[in-house]
């Protein structure tokens, strides 16, 4: 059953033992960020955290690490919590085949329970805001779905954008926003600012888990995140009309903030500890003025800790980054088997492919750097054979150890674009890129001595299944003697 | 109240704890550099004396910061907006 709101998903996590409810009072600093940092270090079965009492709040509820493990990511997609990473990515891609699946508008969104307008708005009273990383310039909201429309084509549903952007609280009803230049929201803002107009915006916080996944997925400009959410859910994404702006917003959200990005205004922002594991700041960025807040009773503040990887954001963005890259490569090169672009949103990526002809693998690697997402990422690309699992790093290291010859298998591209947040870029936003071809050369590329690879003994797979079942349960009496 | 980061001396109290009020905590913010802190945080976050040197800001640095994204030129025929961007917001006060 897909979830229609965050509360339904938290219940499912609880049923699977993937949620820790913490009822003892927690200090906003440093307890909440410290707990979220610690949760991220608990491994592939790390739980979500739900704090029920925050000092200074009558009913401060904070949900952290909600997507922050492979078990939780699997449950977000309604898969068994033990599903492997490679299988989760493959299933994500398979469901994308049903894209676009139209969304449905549902009446009576629960966020209409409470309304605050204009000067009565105090974000700090609605949400137990707190500092994430020590040197952040303030308190941030970093897991909300930010919705805008294209001022040049406001009725186009697909051009309506849903994305997650860092939002710095700058007062009771004011947020700084980072609309990265390569993102669709920057295109909307530019069109509005060229006309001297404010850009209407809705910020939906605390969503069903698939909304966060699609908001983190790099999609083409005219593709609707909501219609991808439907495909991933297998049933239409429930939406509601935002009462002030008329934007389409997730029906089940906990808190809905509406207002405008003020035209042609820039203010100093940051710093903020980013997914690169480094702070970024010192730029002047646009500002949102909030004119209306709608929220559920006792809203849950869903928040995301990010910092030195891996943290929740790596789970949230990982498969969501792999799948569009896989599909874009396969559209032209059906030989491509899998893409693992989970390292820092795909700054490092691994592709496995069959080789059509000598030199094919490096062509695939180069193509990855020129996909829409690859333009700003895919700085280091490793290409491996089709029988190497790119999600199994020891296998990838084996391919690099034995298939890769630095004399001939390195392609270095100087002066390529990269996202400005990459701290190694110099000047900011410019970087070299590299493709490492760790595939077996095929004719007419006759190199090396790769014909003598060891293969599994017959019946190895059968024995693996047998041994695994014995390891998990009682061994039959006819089994091998100890 | 002095901003721990840029030393502007008109930092403001934004809000107090909804339960227990200012005796529990206050959130304070600087209207020049937008640094925000809670009164209960560590001295490195709340006092100019202990604020880390590498994270301080000056009015010059704020003014020199690049725009992201840059404000685009107005389309031909669009009148200049009434208030110039950034002014009247204390950003350079
Ligand atoms: Zn300041």
TrEMBL record, chain A:
Gene Ontology molecular functions: 4-hydroxy-3-polyprenylbenzoate decarboxylase activity
Protein name: Phenolic acid decarboxylase
GO BP term, pick one: ubiquinone biosynthetic process
Any one of the GO CC terms: cytosol
Similarity section: Belongs to the UbiD family.
Signal peptide (UniProt feature, chain positions): none
Sequence ranges assigned to domain 3-octaprenyl-4-hydroxybenzoate carboxy-lyase-like N-terminal in this UniProt record: 10-90
Ranges of residues in domain 3-octaprenyl-4-hydroxybenzoate carboxy-lyase-like C-terminal: 315-438
Pfam families reported in the protein's UniProt record: UbiD, UbiD_C, UbiD_N
Organism name: Streptomyces typhae
SUPFAM superfamilies recorded: FMN-binding split barrel, UbiD C-terminal domain-like
Boundaries of every 3-octaprenyl-4-hydroxybenzoate carboxy-lyase-like Rift-related domain copy: 115-308
Region (Disordered): 439-458
From TrEMBL, chain B:
InterPro entries xrefs: VdcD-like
Biased composition, class Pro residues, residue ranges: 69-79
Pfam annotation, one family: EcdD_BsdD_detox
Disordered: annotated span: 67-93
NCBIfam families, A to Z: VdcD
Protein name: 4-hydroxybenzoate decarboxylase
